[in-house]
Amino acid sequence: MKELPDNERPRERLISYGASSLSDSQLLAILLRNGYHDKNVYDLAIDILKQFPLSKIQECSYYDLISIKGVGKVKAIEILAAIEFGKRIFLRKSEKLVKLKCAMDIWNDVKYLITDLKQEHFYCYYFNHKQELLERKLLFMGTINRSIVHPREVFKEAYRLSASSIVCIHNHPSNHVMPSKEDVLLTDHLVKTGYIQGIPIRDHIIVGEDSYYSFYEHHNILNL
């Protein structure tokens, strides 16, 4: 990068013109800090973005990144940390508590988190008594069933936040959102636990990229 004029070097350009003036590859080059013996950091950043463009990079695992020549353990960890930090800033960009009044509101909110995921992710949205969202929490990944989703984790977070109700959400990577038998059994189990705990499960929503299924809207949750 030393061969570039000062106003084209990513760090110097950021200081002079702000982060928004940098290209995707320049931002990534700052995170990487250096290249390797036959490739400079800017070219390494371009190589990474060719393999994992911004629309895909949030799906990258640690092992995806270290498979790229020039990306070691430290670089991979720092990239993943930066991606997660950006997600959290995006989700918390407004300190005002958001009201999500129906399943469609929640589906529109969660689409950013589940787009292009290749495995099931189980989220809980925790609400106060005004139906204002307190927190989104990813609790489990993998095949979602009663043996994986532990009610103690679901309700532990509810007590930590002093939540009044919970909406459970998980995705179907197939984009087919009709509930499976396991989805129905899991929902029944969580609803009954919520009744005992005094923190109702308001809904369980199965989401795809272009549709969703709400147990509440289909009258499959009875304790509301």
β-strand percent reads: 5-15%
Give the overall shape, derived from the CA principal axes.
Answer: elongated
User: What is the helix content?
Assistant: 40-55%
Helical segment tally?
9
Mean pLDDT: 85
Strand order of the largest sheet: 2-1-3-4-5
Structural class: alpha+beta
Order of helices and strands: HHHHHHHEEHEHEE
Give the N-to-C terminal Cα separation.
61 Å
Report the C-alpha radius of gyration, rounded.
Answer: 21 Å
- Major pleated sheet: 5 strands, mixed
Number of strands: 5
- Unreliable stretches (pLDDT < 50, length at least 5) are none
**Oligomeric status:** single chain
Explain this structure.
With 224 residues, this protein is α+β, with helices and mostly antiparallel strands. 43% of the residues lie in helices and 15% in strands. The protein has nine helices and five strands. It has helices at residues 10-17, 24-32, 41-51, 54-57, 62-66, 73-91, 103-114, 151-161, 181-197, and strands at 121-127, 133-141, 165-171, 201-207, 212-214. The chain has a five-stranded mixed sheet with strand order 2-1-3-4-5, sandwiched between helices. Helix 2 (24-32) packs across helix 3. The longest helix has 19 residues, at 73-91.
